[in-house]
Amino acid sequence: MTGLPILLRLALRRDRVMLPAWVLGLGLAVLVTATSYSDLYATEADRRQVVTTLGSTPATLALYGRIYADSVGGLVGWRLGGIALALAGLMAILLVIRHTRAEEETGRAELLGATAISRDAPLAAALITAGSASVALGIITTLALVAAGLPTTGAVALGLVYALTGLAFAGIAAVTAQLTESSRAANGLAIAVLGAAFAIRAVGDAGPHALSWLSPLGWGQAVRAFGDERWWALLLPLALAALSTVGAVRLKQRRDLGAGILPPRPGPAEGALETAGHLAWRLQRGTLAGWAAAYAILGLAFGSIANDIGDVIGDSPDVREALRKLGGQQSLTDAYLSATLSILALVAAAYTIQATLRLRAEESGGHAEPLLATATSRTRWALSHAMIALAGTMLLMFVAGVAAGIGHAAQTGDLSQLFRVVNTATLQTPAAWTLGAVALLLFGAAPRLTTAAWGVLALCLALGQLGEVADLPQALIDVSPFAHGPTLGNDPGLAPFVLFVITLALAWAGLKALETRDIG
Fold first, then answer.
1. Degrees to nearest 5, angle at CA 287 with 438 and 293
2. Is 493 exposed, middle or buried (0-12, 13-18, 19+ CB in 10 A)?
3. Residue ranges of the alpha helices (H) in 18-100?
4. Number of other CB atoms surrounding residue 188 within 10 Å
5. Cα distances (angstroms) measured from residue 265 to each of 104, 155, 185, 197, 262
6. What is the pTM (predicted TM-score) of this model?
7. CA pair distance 277, 493, nearest whole angstrom
8. Which of 9, 398, 461, 477 counts the highest number of beta carbons within 10 A?
9. pLDDT in tens, 147-173
10. Cα 322 to Cα 465: distance, rounded to the nearest angstrom
11. pLDDT in tens, 187-245
C-alpha cells in the first residue's frame, strides 16, 4: 500500500465540495423528515391511520417499503428506507468509480503508477474514501435523529443501515470498475445493479415479501429501525461489502492497467458519425433511454393513486395542508399531482445537468481537442450536447405526464385528465432547463466549478420541498425556478416563458465564455 496516504489526501481534496454536499444534504433530509413527522403525526391515532392506509397501498409500498412500527421513529424509518437509502448507495458508487476507473480512463492513474505508488493503493484509497463518506453519513443520520428527539437505539440502527448500505455498494462499484474500460460503463453497470436492487425490493414489499431478501436495499429495511430491531440483518450488507471488495482485488490482479475484464465491443468497419450532433446523440442515447423508462414507471405509479390520495394520507389536517402548500390550493387530487410533477421536474433537472456536463467529461478526457481540431466549432460542439439535454428533459416530463395521465384517467374514467396532466407536466420543463443553462454557463466561464451546478440543484430541492412547510420567506422560496411552475387548475401565466428567456440568456453567456477560454 505504498503511497496510500498521499492518494487519500488527493481524493479528499478533489471531493472537498462533493463529499460535504452529499453527507450534509442527506443528513439535512433526515433531520427535516424527523422533525416534520413529529409535528404531523403527533397523536397515536394519526400514526395508526397512516400505517393502516399506507401499509396496504401497493404504490407506496413499492416506493418506500413496509412500515414496521406505528411510532414517529417507525414512520421516519419507513420514509427514509426507500429512495433515501438508494441515494446513499448512489453516493458510494459515484465516489468509487471517480477514483478508480475514471482515473485510468483519463490516463492519470498511469502517471501516478510511474511514481512510488503500489498497484493496489488507488483501489484502496477509493474504497476508504467512499467508506469514510458512508460512515460519516451514518453518524450524521444518528445525530440528526437523536436531535429530533427520537429513541437512541432506533437512531443508531438506522445510522448503521445507511453506513453499511454505502459500504456494500462501494464494493459493488469496485467490481464494476474492474469489468469495463470506461467510467461511463462502470457507473452504468453499478447503477443498474442499484436499480435492480430497488426494483426487487419494491416488488417484494408490494407482493411476495420473501423477494425483498434478494435486495441489499431490502436488507436495510429488514433491520426494522425503531421497531423490533433485528441487528443480525446488518451482517448481510457487511458481508456483501467484504466479498465484493475481495472480488474487486482479485479481478484487478487479473487485468492490465486501463483494460477491463470484459472485452470492448468492436465498432463498425466504417464510421457513421457525420456530425458533432450524431456523436453527442451516440454518447447520450443510452442514458436518456434509462431515464425515460424510469419516468414512465414513476409517472404511472404516482398517477394510479392520485384519485385515492385522500384515503392514502388520512384525515390529518396538517398533512392535507402540507400537501396543498406543495401543490397549490386546489382540490386535494390536483394538489397531489401538481406536487408530484414538480418533484419529477426537479429530479429531471439532474438529468439536464448530467447531460450538459458531459461536455466537461469530454474535455477533461481529452476527447474534445481532436474534435475541435476539425471544422467543428466550439459553439456547435457545445450546442450538440446542450440541445440533447434540453430535448431530453422535455421528453422525460412528457413521458411522465403521459404515464401519470393514463393512470389517473384509467382510475377516474375521464380521458380529459390525460391532457390536463400532460400539459402541466410539459410546462414544468423550463424550470429544469434553467439549471441546465446554469451548468452550461459554469462550463463556459469556470469549468473547474461545474460541480457547483449540483449545489444549485440541492438548493432548489431544499427551497421547493421544505420552504413552504417550514414557513420560509416567500422571497427566498421564489429564488428557485421550480417555485414558478404551473399547477393543475391554475393559469400558468407568463412564468414558463420568462424561465425560457432566462435559460436562453444563461446559455448564450456560457457559449460566449466558451469561445474565449482555453480548452483542456
1. 110
2. exposed
3. 18-40, 44-54, 58-64, 72-80, 83-99
4. 17
5. 19, 47, 12, 27, 9
6. 0.75
7. 34
8. 461
9. 888 889 989 999 999 999 999 999 999
10. 10
11. 888 888 888 888 788 777 766 778 888 889 888 888 888 888 889 999 999 999 999 99
